[in-house]
Amino acid sequence: MNFTRSDLEQADQHPYIAAVDLGSNSFHLVVARIIDGDIQLLHREKQKVQLAQGLNEHFVLSEEAIERGLKALSQFADTLAPFKPESVRVIATFTLRRAKNAATFIRRAKSIFPFPIEIISGQEEARIIYQGVAHFEHFNDKRLVIDIGGGSTEFVIGCGQEPLSLSSRNIGCVSYGMDYFSQGRISEKRFNRAILHAEQELEHIANNFKNIGWQQVLGTSGTVKAVRDIIVALGFSSDSIELCHLETLKSYLLQYNNCSELIIPGLNEDRKLLICSGLAILIAAFKQLQIQQLHYIDAALREGILYEMSDRLQHVDIRQQSVASMQRRYDIDIAQANRVSRTALTLFNQVNTHWQLQQEHANALEWAANLFEVGLHINSSSVQKHSAYILQNANLPGFNQEQQLLVATLVRFHRRKIRAEEIPNFSLFQLPQVVNLIVLLRLAILLNQKRRDDFLPEISISASEQQLQLHIEPDWLQQQSLLAAYLQSEQKQLRKVAFHLECPNLPLPHQE
Q: What residues does the Ppx/GppA phosphatase N-terminal domain cover (predicted)?
């Protein structure tokens, strides 16, 4: 299906959105329209990339795998050419999550694919998968959702639209195929070793999941669909999957010596080399979690992405809920967080055009302002380090890895020294912009150090490259000797990272 810029410009009432899933086995593109809060799927594309096959034992992605991925993205770019960046969300999962040279792939992708690539954690992947399922098919009671991917398998128990327990295990049909069924070889011993290893991986979550319990089990994505299609085609079942069906299918597959020889009703050519490893993982899940029956559902990560994009367009952002949850959990001084947040955004709005900052930068600044004191829960000494550690390692639903790292980085340097060498390398954010956000957060916190709503007068700032001029009413500032001293100290700290803070109205005794 071809999309034109004219189509999209005339779609104000029912906007077009697109989701791209950079999986370990295949890359997927889905285009949809939002109609009355619901999603109408219009177009799908799939490119078999087998990215996980290019990940070596040192977690370095091969040049051949990178080229396959870039070729697929160039084809997606053609379809997405009329789309605005905010209408497309691109999610990368296990392989790029693990690859040490993922930044290389993303950097090279920028030249052919003009949409930002977000690498998400396994927990976040599981949460989005569940959202796709929950929006696709309503169910009031608790259910278990299993998604077997190329490099990892996600397990979620949820009730209604709320996930209750999330887990991502590093067992996938591509990686298992390479480890246990190399070159497509099939044997009883290979099956048993693969099943045992998968059971060991699932042992860590089995008790917790069984204690929560469920009334329904659903499987999503290609592996479960392939298994379901085969057992239905062979007459083992009319629709649902049970352990006896899986064991029967295993015995059927053992009649062959190699996956390349498989000629089975319901099995597509591109699934031949993955069916044994996927089946082994599914058998292990049934055994460890004591699953009685599983049904396939045609919704997963991509649908979850689309529904979350729809929610954001309607100003419902799961990330805001995650921030509020963290504030409650760590008993943050909400009044102070609100003061710092208001000041930070007021400063941001005066310099964002000159510094080329976007809404995503404003979001990160606001979240950091709301969470910079989470580390007080540990100790007030080195609070910036404690807060950053918590934010970098917490489960924050809705955040991709770089968004979470950016918030943690802003908080890490909200006071004391800024160590430029410790600022991470980002793919989605530029270093000068990160430094600028750090400066804005530091000023907002410094200006609100008295924790009073009636303290600050009107403040304005003007910006140039690596420079900020702070304008405060001189008579008021003359009375704030402590604040003047703090501002003078801040000037010294920022000069160490080649940033110049000017404050023309600082009282003369404090000027250098």
A: 30-311
